[in-house]
Amino acid sequence: MKLPIDLQFLRRPFERRTPPGSAPGTAAKPEEEVASRMHLVAFGPEDFQETVIENAAEVREYLGSYDVTWIHVHGLGNTAQLRQLADMFDLHPLVYEDILHPHQRAKAEEYGDYAFIVVRMVELEPHLDTRQLSMVVGDNFVLSIEEASSQDRLEPVRERLRKRVGRIRQMNSDYLSYALMDSVIDHYFPVVESFGDRLDTLDDPLAAGYTNDIIPQIQKISSDLLTIRRNLLPHREAIRNMMGARFTRYTDNTTVFLRDADDHTSQLLDAIDAYRQICSDMRDFHFALTSQRANEVTKTLTIIATVFIPLSFIAGVYGMNFNDMPGLKWEWGYEFAWLMMISIAGGMLAWFYNRGWFKG
């Protein structure tokens, strides 16, 4: 029997690559074969430079030459390159471990001269999944490391930098990290809305009674929404941590925008909860509809059985094979039996009708 949910595509909560009891900061080689690609954007209010980096050592010539340098790494396949970047920015071993083990929940932590932020990017194709985006935010740089993904969630930020849209070219690295996080969170909206559209398409067939294939679809939607909620909820905690007094990396100008990201996260969580409630209501409606249909069938069968009980009794009495029976030789006995049975059946049906058994 085919399961309503394809369990092989449900992502596990975490995928540890180190054995239990390993020393903190132990980083195992990623299983993925996607080679790392580095893209660099360096900018200021009037300056802008965008290039592809082949060697991590090339990053040094941009650091300090521009107001902000954004180094983006796509894929975790080249561990030597990632190790070189970790040494260049003096990353803590725990940070390096979290980068190479992309099962982390969204979080924001401070490590002295830099902040370490983890967000999760959602994608629907080829199946629902989330990918980790790690960010190291320093005074004049942002190092972002993205788990291999088929979709580019950060291209809108690059376009804003190229075309000088908004204030992003005038702001510092903390605002750039906010922009990256905000782009990731904004991409949750079309994904969550797509589940609302799918529920709308199921509403009319469900009301019409075509429920054979709908309930497994509703269950799949509810399960996917739970997966999204589980990955999205920690973002709100991380953002509120970044706005707290103990988190000094972000200025007041950027904190204002973080409040907007927090509001977007709350809106998404509210929408997910509403859609999951709709899934629950649709399942309840299905079960109520199924129960109602069963009751209608039972009522119909009960009426039929009730009508035929006295008719069977009459037929049984007159079907007994005794020689001495009243009316046995009567000329109109057969017609009288039929008349009596039709009268009883008609009377009972009329009584049931008056009682409202045939309504609905």
UniProtKB/TrEMBL annotation:
InterPro entries: CorA_cytoplasmic_dom, CorA_TM1_TM2, Mg/Co-transport_prot_CorA, MgTranspt_CorA/ZnTranspt_ZntB
Function recorded in the entry: Mediates influx of magnesium ions. Alternates between open and closed states. Activated by low cytoplasmic Mg(2+) levels. Inactive when cytoplasmic Mg(2+) levels are high.
Main location: membrane
Catalytic activity: Mg(2+)(in) = Mg(2+)(out)
Record-stated family: Belongs to the CorA metal ion transporter (MIT) (TC 1.A.35) family.
Keywords: Cell membrane, Ion transport, Magnesium, Membrane, Transmembrane, Transmembrane helix, Transport
Alphabetized Pfam families for the sequence: CorA (PF01544)
Recorded GO CC terms: plasma membrane
One term of GO molecular function: cobalt ion transmembrane transporter activity
Membrane topology: Multi-pass membrane protein
Entry protein name: Magnesium transport protein CorA
Chain segments annotated as transmembrane: 301-320, 332-353
Species lineage: Bacteria, Pseudomonadati, Planctomycetota, Planctomycetia, Pirellulales
PANTHER family on file: CORA FAMILY METAL ION TRANSPORTER (EUROFUNG) (PTHR46494)
Species this chain originates from: Bremerella alba
Record localization: Cell membrane; Membrane
Gene3D superfamilies registered for this protein in UniProt: CorA soluble domain-like, Magnesium transport protein CorA, transmembrane region
